[in-house]
Structures are given as structure tokens and as C-alpha cells.
Amino acid sequence: MTEKEVIEAIEYMQKYQTETDRIEAKTAEIDFPKKCYDTISGFANKYGGIIIFGINEHNSFIEQNVYDVNDLQKQITSLCTNSMEPIIRPVFLPITYKGKILLAVKIKEIQQNKKPCYYKNAGMHKGSYIRIGDSDELMTEYEIYNLQSYNDGIQEDLRPIKRANVDDLDKEKIEKYIEKVKESKPNFSKFSNEKILKLSGIIENSTGEIYPTLAGTLLFAEYPQAYLPQLVVACVVVPGIKWGDIGEMGQRFDDNKKIEGTLDEMLEQTLSFIRKNIGTKVVIDSNGKREDLPEYPMKALREAVANALVHRDYSISRESAYIYVQIYDDRIEILNPGDLYGNNRLENLGTDMILEARNKNIVRLLEEKGNIIENRHTGIATIKNEMKKMGLPEPEFQSLRGDFKVILRKEKVENEIQKEDRRGQKEDRKRTEEDRRGQKEDRSEQIRKLGTIEDKILYLIKQNSNITQIEMCEIIGVGRTAITRRIKKMKDNNIVKRIGSDKYGYWKIL
């Protein structure tokens, strides 16, 4: 921490009138602030941060003298040493800024295996905080459990599934696995099949009873959801660009499916659902050969879905949560239960840094099977590269306090020429608005002269293929039911056809 860094932090808060997830302002004009432990805990449990004493967040972040730099340091040291678990070692830097004496205190992130840092007087469950934006929030029970299970080395994928037994595993799959693992691990050949399954983490028999593990059930059971009913992928197609958008026929989803099976089967079925529900684009190569390609790179989608299945949190505390795949008109979102694991960080995704695996046994078994994990440690990089190849925006990765989300968008990145064209198109639309209003009046007069509602619908579609049923109701002057019934009849008689989604598609006269 340098004086320059502290001044830059002050200038940031004063410019944007806010703190951040790594900067906190505290007044200490009269005495030591009554509550600092929450920020110390929050910084120590997240990425660390700087607390600047002598900045008034309630008055435009103006600078004020602290009451006594020496006593303030003693109070903070006492709090960090005697009241925080584990002990925190703050770094101090007194500075003079615009004639005011301030004190900057740097709180470092503690080691992952020592988290959570908490205020001892409140106890772990009521004294553990995490920094979220400019706020110090109490950690949830799940967040604390997640840290403790990491510290204790709990392997959730080795948990025995006591509702199942070995006979519920697919014998053919088990035999193929044993045969393959004996080839790759010659020392396994001397063991019985039961011991191979035990050593491989497929079964567990520590109590004398033999049960499939969670990993064994998800990879080898004939029907895993008989014992783990919530471990599925929920796929939906939203008729719009935000959750809750409703289609023209009142539908919440254009398509939805709950996908079950082993991890292998869920991956392939999910990709099939996505492929069915995304558009295609035509590409002409240099030889004039036409090729229809999905509007999203399927390799990127495969990696994103595989990551969700392999790295989600399978602990009992998140066992009831689905993996969600949500297809919107402008993007695909993949949400899986379980935040980044251990020391993993967003900024390290897609780099050459080796990431920690939550489900080590699932990862190993899949590597040995060789049918899902084909690009170990390069999945995120593959997603980025495949999106870039198609000229699509960078994938977005979000850490959501217990969940992890991947967003793939299909809008192409505009260059300067495209931006200028779009600006020109906007000006053209603005200049012709008055002409359109006149045309609308002429259209209304023409519609009044037409006979049946069907004729009026056809006339409107010819004028505007993007017209909605609601707009038809307003122009023709009839209710929604009348329009819906006649359009259905016209579709059944191959008079008109809807191309694309209800909200963003268009009409075609056949």
C-alpha cells in the first residue's frame, strides 16, 4: 500500500460517490468508530481491501482529521488481535491529504484454509462477513459450510448414496470401465473387481455395507435420478430478452425440458436441446459452397455445459438445486449451483493457472472414461477462443454468492464502420417518422374499406411483416381472441406462417 494508492482510492470515492468491494471510508473525527469488525471480516474473507479513516461517506466523502492517529492504530490493532479469529495483521499508513490527517489501514485476504474470519464476540455464524460491492454482508450458512468443507477436505462426490445399491449400477458400463482401467493401470489387475470399484471411488463400504458413491451413481447408475431426483438440467427457451417475458400467445416458455440421466447423457441431451432451439446462419466459403452453422459455437456450449455438470456443488446443502440453461433471444445463460471453489478466482479463468477441482473423483473418473473431459484445464480458454472465431462477444463469467453463471451473447462486436452505419440508419428513421405517420392514416382508411378480418390481417402483414397481434387488434378494432382464432385458421390453411419467436420473429405470406 502506497500513499499514491490511497489518494487514488479517495479520488475514486469522491468522483463516483461510492465505496467499492476493496475500499471503505470511515469517519474517526471524535473517537474510534463503534463498528469496524464487519469490514475487517468482509475484506479478510474476500480479496482484501483498504479502510481509510478520516473520510466522511455521509457528506460527499470529504476528508476530515482523525481524532488521534496513534490511538486509532492501537484500537485497530487490539480489535484485530483480540477480537478477530483468526488474528488479523493490519498494515498502517498515516497520510496528510488536502491539509487533513488521515489513516489508511490495509486488510489482507487470509489464506483460504483459515476462512472464515469472524468477530469472536458474535461467533462464527453471526460474526462472519463478506464484502459485496460497498457493503459488508453476513455470510450465509451455505457460504460458511462451503469454507469449512474445503478446510476439512470433504469430498462430496464420495458420499455414499444409501438409497441405492451396487445392482443399480449399469453392469455393462462397469465392466467396460474395469477393463479400461486395468489397461491404463496395470497394478489394478491384481485386485478384485470390488476393490477396483472401491479404489476408483465408485462404491463405498467403510461400514460393511456396500453403496454406490455419488460419483458412481452419476456416472454408472441405470437411472441416477431415482436416488438423486433434483440433479437434473432444467432447459428453457424464453420468448424475449429477460426472465419473465411473455410470448404473444401468453406462453412463458417457447420450449422447456427437464433433462435426466448420467452426466454423459445429460450433456448430450442438453446440447441437443440447445441445437434445436438456436438459429442458424449461412456461410459461403471461397469456393461458393454454402454451409448452415449454428449461431453459437457448439464447442463453446459443450465446454460450458460440461463444466456446469462436472464442477457444480453436489453437497447436501445444494443437492435440491438444478443446473439451468436459459436460451434468450440475444444470449444463452448457464447457471450452476456452487460458486468458484477454493482459491479459484474469476481473473484466473482461461489462463494457464491450474484451478482447483471441487469434485476430484468425478473429474478423475471422467478422464479415465475419456468421453466428457477432453480438454482438461483448457475448457474456459476453448469457450473464449470459439466465441472469438465467430466474431461474438467475450463470454461473461459471474460469481453469484453460491452460484456460477456463464453468459454467451450472439450480438457481433461492431467495428467503427458498422457503428457509423447504425447511426446513419437511426437518422434515416428519424427523418421518415413524419412520413410514416401519414402512411398510418392512409392505411387506416384503406383497412376500413376491406371486408373480412382475414383480409385486413393479410393487408397489415403485407405492410409490415413484423406487426404483432396486439397491434392488429388496435388497428382493426377487434379483440385479441378474434385475431388469434383467425391467424390460427390461416396458419392451418397454409396462408401465413410465423418465422422465428413470437416476440422477435416475422410473418410470411405463403
Short description:
It contains 17 helices and 22 strands. It is an alpha+beta fold. The model is unreliable at 413-417 (pLDDT under 50).
Structure write-up:
The protein is of the alpha+beta class and 510 residues long. Among the domains are: 3-139, Methyltransferase, Cobalt-precorrin-4 Transmethylase, Domain 2, CATH 3.30.950.30; 450-509, Orthogonal Bundle (Arc Repressor Mutant, subunit A), CATH 1.10.10.10. It is built from 17 helices and 22 strands. It has helices spanning 3-16, 37-45, 69-83, 124-127, 141-151, 171-184, 193-199, 214-220, 263-277, 298-311, 360-369, 379-389, 416-431, 433-449, 453-463, 469-476, 480-492; strands spanning 23-26, 49-53, 55-56, 62-63, 84-85, 91-97, 100-107, 118-119, 129-132, 135-138, 203-204, 211-212, 233-237, 255-259, 280-284, 290-294, 323-327, 331-337, 396-399, 403-409, 496-499, 506-509. Strands 14-13-17-18-20-19 form a 6-stranded mixed sheet, covered by helices on one side. Strand 15 (280-284) and strand 16 form a beta hairpin. The protein is flat, with a radius of gyration of 30 Å. The N and C termini lie far apart (70 Å).
Describe this protein with a few key phrases.
38% helix; single chain; alpha+beta; 19% strand; Arc Repressor Mutant, subunit A; flat; Methyltransferase, Cobalt-precorrin-4 Transmethylase, Domain 2; 6-stranded mixed β-sheet
